[in-house]
Design brief:
- This protein has one domain.
- The chain is 28% helix and 24% strand.
- It is globular and about 70 Å long.
- The two termini are 24 Å apart.
């Protein structure tokens, strides 16, 4: 039977203050090298990526966009994350060196600047966006040789280095620019979702099923999966298990899967 929700059973937005973006590879029906892009039968087949926005402090999957690794899907991910966190600036954003994130973050969080008229002949300069004060975004750049990572570097894209260092000092989990927490969650999801396990015969045959199970696995994890490192001491001195949604202030108990499936996504007063 579903657990009976208590007074604080659903709150929004989450307490997210830090985010890590990443893309997790999988494939549908067959791998990309075996697809013929001129053949309509190969539409929605081949490489299929999970674009994930992850809250490392609360281990919360805030947003996921499955599909091709494109600028459009990256922009959709950042926009979903911005909307689900109430549009506020994060203390720190990190990702790998995929250039689409810089464009997407600036598009979602940037402030529009209208250049003043110069009075000179010619077309006036078009409006453009700049990073607002307080936007801190850094990337982790990995150099590979023969498929192995041989060098890892970091770079601050938006914000001052001092501001990023201050954000790291305030973080409860990060002491350096990294994407380690979202990468660890990628491994957790591969374990929970057999379609994405590496080096096995298990894979999705249809993209609709692939997307459906992706959402089921990643979002049920938020509410129904107690994370060992999130446990706190209860009033009796014992460990109190917490899910990512509990840690992020979205709910006050670990949900059963039946409760999660049956509860409407949009709450009405």
């Amino acid at each position: 039977m579903p657990t009976t929700p208590t007074t604080n059973s659903w709150a929004f937005p989450p307490l997210t203050a830090e985010v890590q973006f990443d893309e997790k590879w999988a494939f549908v029906a067959k791998k990309e090298a075996n697809c013929d892009r001129s053949d309509p039968a190969d539409d929605h087949k081949g490489d299929y990526w999970d674009h994930v926005a992850f809250d490392p402090e609360h281990r919360l999957v805030v947003a996921v966009v499955p599909g091709a690794r494109t600028i459009e899907n990256t922009e959709a991910l950042v926009e979903q994350f911005r909307r689900r966190t109430g549009g506020r600036l994060m203390r720190l954003m990190t990702s790998d060196a995929y250039a689409a994130y810089e464009t997407a973050i600036l598009d979602c969080y940037g402030e529009t600047v209208d250049p003043p008229r110069t009075g000179k002949p010619g077309r006036p300069r078009a409006p453009y966006k700049v990073a607002p004060p307080g936007l801190n975004y850094a990337v982790v750049a990995k150099r590979r040789e023969r498929g192995r990572v041989v060098e890892v570097g970091t770079r601050v894209v938006f914000g001052a280095v001092a501001a990023v260092l201050m954000a790291l000092g305030l973080s409860r989990v990060s002491r350096a620019i990294n994407t380690a927490f979202v990468e660890r969650q990628n491994g957790t999801d591969r374990h929970r979702n057999a379609r994405k396990a590496r080096k096995t015969y298990r894979f999705s045959k249809d993209w609709r099923h692939h997307e459906a199970v992706t959402y089921l696995s990643l979002y049920s994890y938020n509410f129904c999966w107690p994370v060992r490192t999130l446990a706190v001491v209860d009033g009796r001195g014992g460990p109190r298990k917490r899910s990512p949604a509990m840690a992020a202030g979205l709910t006050d108990h670990v949900w059963s899967l039946s409760e999660w499936v049956s509860r409407p996504a949009v709450q009405r007063s």
